[in-house]
Amino acid sequence: MLENKLGEGNLIKVFLANVIPAIISMVIGGAQPIIDGLFLGKFAGINSMASVNIAGPFMQIIFAVSFITCTGAISMIGRCLGSGKQEKAQSVFRTAVIFITIISILVTIFGAIFSRQIARLLKATDLLVDDSAMYIFVISFFAPIISNMYLTGFTDRTLGKPNQYMFGAIISLFANCLLDYLLIGVCNFGVLGGALATGLSYLIALAICSIPLFKKSSIINFYKGKINFRLMLSVVANGSSEAVVCGSTAISVFVFNSTLLKVAGEGGVAAFTIINYIATFGALAMFGISDGINAIISYNFGANKMKRVVKTFISALVLNLVIGLIVFLLVFFAGDKLIQMFSADPQKDVEIIKMAFHGAKIYAVAFFLIGFNIVGSGFFTAIGGALSSVIISTSRGIVWILVGINTLPIWFGIDGIWWTFPFAEICTILITITLFAIFIIKRKKINKQSKIDTNCNIYEKK
């Protein structure tokens, strides 16, 4: 059954069956804090929304813990199943559940104890620090739930059930909206209500995503497999690029918030928050594509079906290009209307809205470029090329962001801040192309000299 779906089925159908639910799931899952911001901006004021953005890097820590394990584990599980090593695949999953739970509990303890210090470290001003600390404190208790939701949801894809994760995400979205309305709009709980709404919505998604894994007949489930923490070394190494993505998001948000506080005060942070929210939807769709092809590529790579791997990769690139064009057109021609959605009083916030709209049009240029880098990083993760994936993620999310933010504003003022994103993507594309060239050369060399070790890495020989 799994072979028919991933290895032998019609590739277009397999691609769409995995990618469309992945896009929906990723957009919804990553948008939960944004939904909080939308309701807070409408019912509690734009500063409450900004305080959630200040706390955003802590949320990225939770995502990093989740994705570093989930992506690495799913890649290994897919390659193991593709090469017929079902017992090892089951052991990887069971160990990953325990490992991710332990690590996320440590995150909970850290966030609960040091919430206010973390908020200050993230440059929360006196006006924002209480709400930022509150959001960090509450959401930290949901870290184990969030992490296991992603692990079970990603694992559903390897079972040929990508819609299970999607249904969980959709239901959690409606739950989050309803809870945000009740807790923020009706009960006036402010940031506390937003954090509770997001955490509880992830709990609902976890319950739905876990259903297939409680079935003993499932090829991957909660009951079978040996616990072997040595497997986590390879899992963490391969999934490290996803941690870099989350870490780089946290760093970039921190750097931009700090720079804008100096240049434009809380209003600048609010403008960036709105831009970041809008851009996040487009980026999440692209990351959804990258996640959606992981199971297809890892399984077929493990089965040494390279034509299916290549076709899947090219299809993902084309789809990302289409999404990038759509996001650019939406932002450029209707960005002002999108931005006004985040304000309770557009007349009062007119300067912030103008600043955000101007910055968003510059930021949107990056969406012509971002898809290639995201899918490239995801491709290397799926085949076990951890180092290449990390290089791409670090380049686009940290290295060139820091170079741009420290140089471009000197010449272009506040516009230099917005141009930092396209600048980072342009520089990274050159690196990504180089890494693919190296991969192709090594692949040809390995094909001539020896068989590929489908269980581990393209760079190793049997």
List the helices and strands and how they pair.
Elements: H1 2-8, H2 11-43, H3 46-54, H4 56-82, H5 86-113, H6 115-121, H7 129-140, H8 143-158, H9 162-186, H10 191-209, H11 231-302, H12 306-340, H13 350-363, H14 370-383, H15 386-412, H16 414-449
Helix pairs in contact: 2-3, 2-9, 2-10, 2-11, 3-7, 3-11, 4-5, 4-8, 4-11, 5-7, 5-8, 6-7, 7-10, 8-9, 8-10, 9-10, 11-12, 11-13, 11-14, 11-15, 12-13, 12-14, 13-16, 14-15, 14-16, 15-16
Plain-language structure description:
The protein has 462 residues and is mostly helical. Helix content is 82%, strand content 0%. It has 16 helices and no strands. The protein has helices at 2-8, 11-43, 46-54, 56-82, 86-113, 115-121, 129-140, 143-158, 162-186, 191-209, 231-302, 306-340, 350-363, 370-383, 386-412, 414-449. Helix 4 (56-82) runs antiparallel to helix 5 (86-113) and helix 12 runs antiparallel to helix 13. The two termini are 28 Å apart. Residues 452-462 have low confidence and may be disordered.
Short key terms for the protein model shown above:
462 residues, 0% strand
Summarize the structure.
This protein has 462 residues and is mostly helical. The chain is built from 16 helices and no strands. Helices cover 82% and strands 0% of the residues.
User: Count of DSSP E strands?
Assistant: 0
Euclidean distance between termini CA atoms: 28 Å
> Helicity, in percent?
over 70%
Looking at the structure, what is the overall shape? globular
Uncertain segments of ≥5 residues (pLDDT<50)? 452-462
If you compute it from the alpha carbons, what radius of gyration comes out, rounded to the nearest whole angstrom? 21 Å
Biggest sheet record: none
Number of helical stretches of at least 4 residues: 16
Class of secondary structure makeup: mainly alpha
Mean pLDDT value: 79
- What string, H for helix and E for strand, traces the elements in order? HHHHHHHHHHHHHHHH
